[in-house]
Amino acid sequence: MALERKTKVWIVDKNVENLQACTQIVDAAQFLRVGETVAFPTETVYGLGADALSDEAVEKIFMAKGRPSDNPLIVHIADKEQVNDIASSLPEKGAALIEAFWPGPLTLILPKTERVASLVTAGLDTVGVRMPDHPVALALIKQAGVPVAAPSANRSGRPSPTTAEHVMADLAGRIVGVVDGGATGVGVESTVLDVTVEPPLICRPGGITREQLEEVIGEVAIDPAFLPDAAEAPRSPGMKYTHYAPEGEMWLVDGEESRVYEQMRTMLAEAKRHGRKTGVMATMESLPYWRQQQVADVVISVGSRSELEQVAQHLYGVLRQFDDEQVQFIVGETFPRSGIGMAVMNRLEKAAGGRILAV
C-alpha cells in the first residue's frame, strides 16, 4: 500500500476578501474534485476531507488515518440547502436546529439519500451532516462543488488536531495537502444529535450543549455512558479503547480537591520510582500548587475550571504537548459534566482509556 507522498501546505488568511477565489483554495478544491484527500480547518478541529459522493475518494481517508471502515463519517456542506442533497428527509426538529445553530458545531443524523457513498455511512441508512462555521472550510467546500466527508485529520486514536502543524505531525506523506487557516476555535468536535428518533438523542457531546439544544426543541435524550454515574465504570463499548490519546499512560482522579491532590501525588511518586517521566494536566487554579510541589517532571495548564470553553479549546493541544515532552505517565483532574463540560469529560475519559480513580 503506497501511501507516502509529498504533502502540500496551503497557507490561507481567513480574513481575505473572497476566499473562495484565492489561489490556495482553488488549488486545494481541485484535488477534492478529483478524489484526493485534503485537510482543512473548521471551528472545532481540523478535518480530513474527501468527496462524500465517491467511495474511492472516501476510502483514502480510512487509509490515511488507519481508521476502521465500520466507523461512519460526517458530511460537511457549505450551504443549508445542500442538506437536501444528502438527506432524504428533514424532521421538523432538525429544521429548527439548522436555523438555530448552522453554521456551527452541530452534526445532525438524518435519513440518507442514495447519492452518499456507502463508505461514508458504514452501510447505515442514516448520515451525519453539518455546516462548519469557519470561512476557510466554507470557501473550500463551495469551490470544490461537492459535499465533503471529513473526520478529524489525525491518525486514528491520536488527539484531534487543532493546528495545521498537528495534522502534518500525524499525516505528512499520507495525504495530498493541508489548508493552513490557523488554530481552530471550539477545540472539541461537534455535537452529534440523532433527529431520526424521539426524543432526539445525543450520540456524542460537543460544541453545542444539551442545554442549548433543549432551548430550541425541548427534551433531548443522551447516551447513558456520558452521564455522571458512568465515571466509575464506563459501559459504552467504545470506552474499552483509547481515543484522542497521548502516547503516555493517562489517569483521571475524581473527588474532593485535597484527596484528589493527595492521590495524584502518590501516583506520580510511584511512577517516578519506576523511572517514568511524569506529567500533570493542571488547571489555571491548580498550576501554582503543582509547580510548588515539584512532584512532576512536566506541568501544563489546560485552562480555567471556571471557563470550560477554554479547557475544551486547549485540551488536544495539551495532550500533544505531553507527547512532545515524551511524558510517560500523566494524571489530571476531572471537570463538571454540565454544558460543554460533558464534551470535555467524554474526550478525557477516552484519552485515559477509561482510567478514572474516584477518591
List the helices and strands and how they pair.
Blueprint: E1 8-11, H1 23-33, E2 38-41, E3 46-51, H2 55-65, E4 74-76, H3 83-86, H4 92-101, E5 106-111, H5 118-121, E6 126-130, H6 135-144, E7 148-149, H7 164-171, E8 177-180, E9 191-194, E10 201-204, H8 210-217, E11 221-222, E12 249-254, H9 257-273, E13 278-282, H10 287-293, E14 298-301, H11 308-324, E15 329-333, H12 341-351, E16 356-358
Parallel strand pairs: 1-8, 2-8, 4-6, 5-9, 10-11, 12-15, 12-16, 13-14, 13-15
Antiparallel strand pairs: 2-3, 3-7, 4-7, 5-6, 9-10
Helix pairs in contact: 1-6, 11-12
EC number: 2.7.7.87
Function: Required for the formation of a threonylcarbamoyl group on adenosine at position 37 (t(6)A37) in tRNAs that read codons beginning with adenine.
Subcellular location: Cytoplasm
Characterise this structure.
Keywords: ATP-binding, Cytoplasm, Nucleotide-binding, Nucleotidyltransferase, Transferase, tRNA processing. Its EC number is 2.7.7.87. Its main location: cytoplasm. The chain folds into two domains: 8-224, DHBP synthase, CATH 3.90.870; 238-358, 3-Layer(aba) Sandwich (Rossmann fold). The chain is 33% helix and 19% strand. It contains twelve helices and 16 strands. The strands form two sheets. It has an eleven-stranded mixed beta sheet with strand order 1-8-2-3-7-4-6-5-9-10-11, sandwiched between helices. Helix 10 (287-293) links the parallel strand 13 (278-282) and strand 14. The longest helix is centred in the last third of the chain and has 17 residues, at 257-273. The chain starts with 7 loop residues before the first strand and ends with a strand.
